[in-house]
Write a structure and sequence with these properties.
By secondary structure, this protein is α/β, with parallel strands linked by helices. It contains 40 helices and 38 strands.
């Protein structure tokens, strides 16, 4: 850039000495934002800077000789350049354009050079897309195509070239859809039967449609090209349509081509795209195209014709249930998931898995719901999942079972004493109760109290907290939810309608309203809000400005009190928006009439208090007005959930949250975490940047006043000063706990906080001039001064390492670490215990100066350390959902388990480093480690190489293709023929292991992030070298939650 002409605006300029001088000279008149470049992005940024200046210099030079001399001078400084890598000075610079083996002729190149990038618009002077595609095909060694629809008219103009690809043995893969019924069966049949192409089709028309249109032409020479744009495979798009397409090049835009390859491969491996064969699948395709083109309701397939597989969000729930039963031994479980997310399918898949694990007849099943239509739909679902059209019997409205083995019953039919008395308490092996938030009703509690000798009990609900104050989670499930489908997961999987959330400043200061740990005083808020005409006018104005048409909206407004609800209903009516107040005191008949009026458009808004948080189903709700603050994530999500149901004609839920100046202890992070799934640190950045990484279709828009309020609030929570934190700890301690001790788990549960609140990235903290370890026992002693805390200097150093254990998440380490720390003495056997070795290196990554026995002895004498680690484990036990399994290939006796999470030191120590050899885990920094004594390659993978939210130059190196296939990039100098490359390729033949560990990023809120063990992996294939791109097949499918993070595309 031209430094003297520094204009206000955004830049991405390297800070040179000249630019640094200018910034210093103008620091009084110009504010600047200078950031360090992430190490992962540095090669790309520096090379781009050098390339710009090299090209400028080459243009300025007058002769070819000068240009060659200049380039050779640069090349001479590159150490990795081959000796013959410089340009020849004997003649002008030339390019190799092709190589062919006689008698074959060279193919014609496309009009756009293989190395160049272009925008093709079918304008005068632009090559037409059709002819360019035909020319690209002539030199392609593999062709991948993704098209939302394919017509015969588009295939017809490429027919000769497609047939030539088959003659040359060039693989062709095609992804397409039944979107709008626009694809033509004749075109796909031709591609498969005549051209030998592989075709995969997405038949899913329920969720977001695939609109992508792109080609990639792979060449063994490395000169791959791609076309990405608006053109489907039709005559108009290929020849004369007003289409825009970008031509990309592996040479100029490698990141773009790599992203295409990654996305295509992920789709290709996904079960969403199913292989198509005209004979086997032609009838299904015709039916799907017909249904899509005419918007008909799909005809149900026969139960036996479907292999029902879980969606990713359902797989997470099934994993969680497996953990509760196999790891914790809990057989009475509750699943919480929004309406419309497939809870019944989860229950059926869970039951199918129990059938598969049972020798003999299927377990006896009782499925309870409160409406006949739900029971009929649930029975159909179970029949589909089990592939058995005769499974199950209904017991409701005149239906009477005959065998009583698999019963789908209404609660009204099965809760009477005379009916229950016919059955033993253990008659049914599996009991499933839908809509379990009704569980505290007499009819449900009577049934639950009778059937007590079940194998598995499963409750399903969207709203675990009832408006009547009954807590079914505490009453029936010991306060534990087995699995809860998070809002952002449901949105990511396109199960709910997207939301547009607007934070609107209401101009009201509630910072002095009484505030306790539970929230604001209702009376205090009511006094501030009710009768506040200025605030009401702002609410009306925002509603008119933001909602597309308030006269047609169907809205719920959540108010603070009955008085407030009635006031807001009156205000809306006076503004011409028909509304009524509906409260917990409203007569049920009147309430039902109001809901009916809203459904039929006679009312536009219901002002609610103490109702509609649960037990309310009106999918047409398209607007939510939040007219009172709440920091309960559960209540917030339940209120939001009233409008997230999909229904015909609703494309988005509009949410208006009216925000004032809040009390200093009010926490915005709770509701924003519920909305986005982000941690507190990333929330602060997202709020400043406008929340750029939400699920597709959803938006969070904060006006300038609210943004400042939110950002400041998040900053105060993230960077909570030690004094404020200690006050928070003190206020959440009872009088007894202030004397006898507040458990870490109790504090975190009461405040809805995580371990990152306590364990910061630093080893020490300072309070009132006194330095102490980053330790819960230290904070508790500072907060509750009556608690004694006097560790030795040596024990304080150990307490500084406590944050190294906040990731521990499997029962083996829970039990093992407790057992070791409670040992009476360090015996030789204990010093050889693999778990003891892992624990030892977690405290001393490079080993204790006097050896492991002395180190362990220090730990046994460190009472504060033992107590704190026990408290961390207690909290992690309540949160963990891991189902660990031993490794294979001779590694079964090692303490590392698949799907458990480990620090680098732990996993290396767990696989022999530091015990069976002389190396120390703390001295190994590389991402790969060969342990010859165990014949095992350890591969450590960081998915997000850059600290930036989005870094195209470093993405798509390591990612999951499916739950069992993982794409991995080796170290940069690894060649396929090297000893390391051959060991990777031939590890099965040679009897060695590959064990894969993955983490999302290098650094998190507590510091260095740990790795999740994916377990043993098997070599499948590779491409390229220096680095090698290897696809590994995992012996065990990835945990569903991690797969959602690791996969390249949604």
């Amino acid at each position: 850039m031209n430094v003297p002409e520094l204009q206000p605006g955004l830049y991405e300029s390297l800070v040179t000495t000249g630019l640094e001088r200018v910034l210093q000279e103008h620091e009084d008149e110009l504010r600047n934002a200078v950031h360090n470049i992430d190490e992962a992005d540095l090669p790309h940024v520096l090379s781009r800077y050098v390339a710009q200046h090299v090209e400028q210099e080459l243009k300025a030079l007058k002769t070819t000789e000068q240009r060659v001399e200049f380039v050779n001078a640069i090349l001479a400084s590159i150490r990795s350049l081959p000796q013959d890598g410089q340009l020849s000075t004997n003649h002008k610079p030339r390019q190799l354009r092709g190589v062919a083996r006689p008698p074959h002729a060279l193919p014609n190149p496309p009009s756009t050079p293989l190395s160049d990038v272009a925008l093709l618009t079918n304008a005068k002077g632009d090559p037409q897309l059709g002819p360019e595609i035909r020319l690209e095909m002539q030199s392609a060694d593999r062709v991948d195509v993704i098209m939302s629809f394919i017509k015969w008219s588009g295939i017809r103009v490429l027919e000769d070239q497609l047939l030539d690809l088959r003659r040359r043995g060039v693989p062709v893969r095609v992804l397409t859809t039944t979107y709008m019924g626009a694809t033509e069966k004749k075109a796909l049949d031709f591609l498969v039967n005549k051209c030998g192409a592989e075709v995969h089709i997405s038949y899913d028309n329920k969720t977001t449609r695939l609109h992508a249109k792109a080609w990639v032409f792979h060449r063994k020479t490395g000169y791959d090209t791609a076309y990405i744009g608006s053109s489907n495979l039709s005559h108009a798009a290929m020849v004369d349509g007003l289409e825009w397409n970008v031509r990309a090049s592996r040479v100029q835009t490698p990141e773009l081509v790599e992203k295409f390859e990654t996305t295509f491969e992920s789709y290709w491996q996904s079960p969403m795209f199913e292989p198509y064969g005209p004979e086997a699948d032609g009838e299904r395709l015709e039916k799907a195209l017909n249904e899509s083109s005419t918007n008909k309701t799909p005809v149900s397939l026969l139960a036996s014709s479907l292999d029902v597989r879980p969606y990713p969000h359902q797989a997470i729930i099934l994993d969680d249930l497996q953990h509760e039963r196999q790891v914790l031994g809990i057989h009475k479980n509750l699943v919480v998931a929004a309406t419309g997310t497939g809870k019944t399918v989860v229950a059926a898949l869970d039951y199918r898995r129990q059938c598969e694990d049972t020798d003999g007849p299927r377990p006896r099943l009782l499925f309870i719901a409160h409406r006949q239509e739900i029971l009929e739909q649930s029975l159909r679902t179970f029949r589909d999942v089990l592939g058995d059209g005769s499974f199950g019997e209904l017991f409701c409205s005149g239906y009477l079972p005959t065998t009583w083995d698999h019963v789908f019953a209404s609660i009204q039919s099965f809760s009477k004493e005379e009916q229950l008395s016919r059955f033993d308490p253990g008659h049914f092996d599996v009991i499933i109760i839908d809509e379990f938030h009704h569980g505290s009703a007499v009819s449900y509690s009577r049934l639950i109290s009778h059937f007590t000798e079940y194998r598995e009990f499963l409750g399903l609900t969207a709203t675990p907290e009832r408006a009547d104050g009954q807590n079914i989670v505490a009453h029936y499930f010991g306060g534990r939810i087995a699995s809860e489908l998070r809002l952002w997961t449901a949105l990511d999987n396109d199960l709910l309608v997207p939301f547009h959330y607007f934070g609107v400043a209401d101009g009201v200061d509630v910072s002095r309203v009484q505030f306790t740990a539970g929230g604001y005083s209702v009376a205090g808020l009511n006094k501030v809000y009710t009768g506040n005409d200025a605030r009401a006018r702002k609410i009306i104005a925002a509603t008119n400005d933001i909602v597309s048409d308030p006269s047609t909206m169907k809205a719920l407004g959540f108010c603070v009190s009955v008085e407030h609800a009635e006031y807001m209903a009156r205000v809306f009516n006076e503004a011409g928006i028909p509304s009524e107040a509906v409260t917990g005191h409203t007569d049920p008949t009147i309430r039902a009439e109001a809901i009916d009026k809203l459904a039929h458009g006679e009312l536009n808004c219901l002002m609610a208090v103490d109702v509609f948080n649960e037990g309310f189903d009106l999918p047409a709700i398209d607007t939510i007005l939040m007219m009172r603050p709440t920091q309960s994530a559960t209540i917030f999500i339940q209120q939001l959930g009233r409008g997230l149901r999909r229904t015909q004609g609703k494309s988005v839920l509009t949410v208006l949250d009216f925000v004032g100046h809040q009390h200093k202890d009010f926490r915005f992070d709770i509701k924003l975490r519920a909305l986005t799934g982000q941690g507190r640190k990333s929330l602060q950045h997202s709020a400043k940047e406008g929340f750029p990484f939400l699920p597709a279709g959803s938006q969070i828009v904060l006006d300038s006043v609210v943004r400042e309020e939110v950002v400041n609030n998040l900053k105060s929570q993230l960077d909570m000063k030690i004094g404020a934190f200690l006050v928070d700890v003190h206020e959440h301690s009872s009088e007894i706990e202030r004397q006898q001790g507040l458990r870490l788990k109790e504090y975190l549960d009461r405040t809805d906080r995580g371990l990152s609140t306590v364990y910061k990235a630093s080893a020490k903290r300072t309070y009132k001039g006194v330095s102490g370890p980053n330790s819960w026992r230290q904070y508790e002693a500072w907060a509750n001064t009556r608690r004694s805390f006097n560790p030795s200097v040596a024990e304080q150093l150990l307490l500084e390492r406590m944050r190294s254990f906040v990731h521990v998440d499997d029962p083996d380490r829970f039990r093992g670490y407790r057992r070791i720390l409670n040992a009476d003495a360090v015996t030789p056997e204990l010093a050889r215990d693999p778990l003891a070795i892992m624990l030892y290196y977690s405290f001393w990554p490079s080993g204790h100066s006097e050896g492991i026995e002395v180190g362990l002895e220090r730990l046994l004498r460190a009472d504060y350390v033992r107590d704190e680690l026990d408290q961390i484990i207690e909290f992690q036990e309540s949160r963990s959902r891991v189902v660990p399994q031993p490794l294979s290939g001779g590694l079964e006796t090692q303490p590392v388990r698949s799907h458990a999470t480990y620090s680098r030191e732990e996993l290396l120590a767990g696989l022999g480093v530091g015990s069976i050899n002389s190396e120390k885990p703390g001295s190994i920094r590389e991402g790969v480690k060969w342990v010859p004594e165990l014949k095992t390659d350890i591969l450590l993978v960081t998915l997000n190489k850059s600290a930036a939210d989005y870094s195209p130059s470093t993405m798509y190196r390591d990612y999951a293709l499916t739950e069992t296939l993982f794409h991995w990039e080796s170290q940069s100098l690894t060649r396929a023929e090297s000893a390391t490359g051959q060991r990777y390729i031939n590890h099965e033949r040679d009897g060695s292991n590959v064990v894969l560990f993955v983490r999302e990023s290098k650094v998190g809120e507590i510091g260095t992030e740990p790795y999740t063990c994916l377990g043993n992996a098997r070599y499948v294939s590779h491409e390229g070298e220096k680095p090698m791109q290897i696809v590994w097949e995992l012996e065990r499918p990835m945990p569903a939650r991690l797969y959602e993070i690791a996969k390249a595309v949604q």
